[in-house]
Write a structure and sequence with these properties.
This protein is of the alpha+beta class. The chain folds into 3 domains: 120 residues, Acyl-CoA dehydrogenase/oxidase, N-terminal domain (Butyryl-Coa Dehydrogenase, subunit A, domain 1, Orthogonal Bundle), CATH 1.10.540; 111 residues, Butyryl-CoA Dehydrogenase, subunit A, domain 2, CATH 2.40.110; 142 residues, Butyryl-CoA Dehydrogenase, subunit A, domain 3, CATH 1.20.140. Helix content is 47%, strand content 15%. Helix 5 packs antiparallel against helix 8 and helix 10 packs antiparallel against helix 11. It binds flavin-adenine dinucleotide (FAD). The site of flavin-adenine dinucleotide has 26 residues, from helix 5, strand 1, strand 3 and helix 12.
Length: 387
């Protein structure tokens, strides 16, 4: 199935796919992934290996310490990682988003080398208990006092915050300007994680168990005066330039889960026998899987199209939103069919299918929920804003 897109790929992209598959087969065998998932462990050694091999710096310029390449290359790596270990693919995308935001702002670019090598981890802290989809409802405050920023508030569902050196926090620094939306006055600040005012605790989720999802409390946490990314009061603006990329890479996670689940179920239905032959001979088994494979191929083309538009510097908001939506919904149906035809084995701890089934759930609502994505697409089609 992966090979479908090889027809459109340049040689270096095929080499990247093969190099990533090689790294995965050496460092992420199924037993290791299953154990890390069960114990909710972030595999720092594998993370560093990804860094040493240039995977973490993709999409960030070489002269800043990145590995170059664009969204198309990051999509390949994200998909291959999610095909085996979706939790790590989530971390890959979210930590990468921090790098892209830095590059987009043209500030703090000295931070890229540490991120790209895997030596340093930066978390991306937007969501709060009272504001996930509705970011404008956030309550975290940052006040400038005695030459530094003092941050108070709580963030929730933050990937790798307990492993992070720096946490990029969206907080209110100023009151909204009169006549402007609640978005004005929000700023993105770089907060050092290793200080008494920052407390990150892991939260146990039933999905993406090894992604290191955390709640983070900021109690008079301190950040240096120059820690703002982009302009003060325009934090959402600083993030906006990377939203399309985030959607495409989220779609790539869906594709990876879809490919992983499809490979697994196809092996299974050809081996599993019932009533004197392999279950793959039944149309009830064949048809949903055939349909899922067709949908996955269509979603792959959409993701590829959106990635290439972004890399070409063309408008891609509609295409990125569509790719996110279509890939997430298609993989949700795919894992449902796949686990059903595997019967009890589809939910057995010893099979990776139960992991794909659980992890595909995230794709429906994160990093942005699909209902909101539908509204964004509708707006792009000329209908009124409905949220
Ligand atoms: C494993 C994991 C890792 C994460 N990592 C990070 C991270 O690193 N950093 C970070 O900041 N966040 C992170 N998140 C948070 C994630 O981005 C949010 O879960 C997501 O934005 C949705 O927010 P919510 O969960 O608060 O759902 P809500 O905003 O409460 O939405 C719940 C549901 O309400 C409906 N809904 C909401 N708004 C609308 C609307 N306008 N129109 C129609 N329907 C609507 C949808 O059905 C939606 O699914 C992570 C979450 C998980 C599970």
């Amino acid at each position: 199935m992966t090979e479908i897109l090889h027809a459109f790929r340049e040689e270096h992209e095929i080499a990247l796919t093969e190099s990533m598959q090689g790294l995965i087969s050496r460092h992420l065998p199924e037993e290791r992934v299953a154990e890390a998932d069960r114990n909710r462990t972030f595999l720092r050694d594998v993370w560093k290996t990804l860094g040493e091999n240039g995977m973490l710096g993709l999409g960030m310029p070489v002269d800043c310490g990145g590995s170059g390449g664009g969204v198309a290359e990051s999509t390949i790596v994200t998909r291959e990682l999610a095909r085996v270990f979706p939790s790590m693919a989530v971390d890959y995308v979210l930590c990468g988003m921090v790098g892209r935001t830095i590059i987009d702002s043209g500030q703090h670019t000295d931070l890229i080398a540490g991120l790209a090598s895997g030596e340093r981890i930066y978390s991306y802290a937007l969501s709060e208990p009272g504001g996930g989809s509705d970011l404008l409802a956030l309550r975290t405050q940052a006040k400038f006092e005695d030459g530094s920023w003092r941050i108070n508030g709580q963030k929730l569902w933050i990937s790798l915050a307990n492993e992070a050196d720096l946490i990029f926090v969206l907080a209110r620094t100023d009151k909204p300007e009169e006549g402007r939306s609640q978005a004005s006055g929000l700023s993105l600040l770089i907060v050092p994680a290793d200080q008494p005012g920052v407390q990150a605790n892991k939260v146990n989720l039933a999905i993406m168990r090894a992604a290191g999802t955390c709640e983070v409390f900021f109690t008079d946490a301190i950040a240096p005066a120059d820690s703002i990314v982009g302009e003060r009061g325009r934090g959402l603006h600083a993030l906006r330039g990377t939203l399309d990329v985030e959607r495409v890479l989220s779609a790539a996670i869906s594709l990876g889960i879809g490919h992983g689940a499809l490979d697994l179920v196809l092996r299974y239905v050809n081996e599993r026998e019932a009533f004197g032959g392999p279950i793959s001979r039944y149309q009830a088994v064949q048809h949903p899987l055939a349909e899922s494979a067709a949908e996955l191929t269509a979603a792959s083309l959409l993701v590829e199209h959106a990635a290439r538009l972004i890399d070409a510097g063309k408008p891609a908001s509609q295409e990125s939103a569509m790719a996110k939506l279509v890939a997430a919904e298609c993989v949700s149906r795919l894992v449902d069919h796949a686990s059903r035809v595997m019967g009890a084995m589809g939910i057995a701890e010893e099979s990776a299918m139960q992991r794909f089934l659980r992890d595909a759930r995230l794709q429906l609502f994160s990093p942005v929920n699909n209902d909101l994505v539908r509204s964004i697409i509708a707006q792009g089609l000329g209908m009124p804003r409905s949220y």
